[in-house]
Design the sequence.
């Protein structure tokens, strides 16, 4: 099963100290480099940052055509993390995409 997530579910579960639910439900969760940067790099020191950076059950995978990100972001008015996960989900034909947007 291919499961993708944007930053919102990761951060929300980390804030309520229930991030461990994701690997209990899904063997792996895929995020994009954009989501990783949002949670781990820009969110350094906040809930979820260190847990996500160390999580072995997180798979970071880029979109096949990164040039599509900017145009899709402008077209739909979503954040870069959300757009990247949606595009990657379509590319991978994901079974599940988690977002709270």
Sequence:
């Amino acid at each position: 099963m291919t499961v993708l997530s944007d930053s919102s579910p990761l951060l929300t579960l980390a804030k309520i100290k229930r991030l461990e639910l994701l690997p209990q439900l899904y063997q792996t969760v895929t995020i994009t480099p954009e989501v990783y940067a949002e949670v781990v790099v820009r969110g350094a020191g906040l809930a979820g940052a260190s847990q996500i950076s160390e999580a072995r059950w997180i798979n970071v995978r880029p979109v096949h055509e990164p040039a599509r990100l900017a145009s899709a972001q402008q077209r739909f008015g979503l954040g870069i993390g959300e757009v990247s996960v949606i595009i990657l989900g379509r590319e991978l034909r994901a079974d599940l995409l988690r977002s709270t947007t």
Remarks:
- The mean pLDDT is 89.
- The chain is about 50% helix and 10% strand.
- The chain has one domain: 3-98.
- Helices lie at 7-15, 21-25, 33-41, 49-54, 67-76, 80-92.
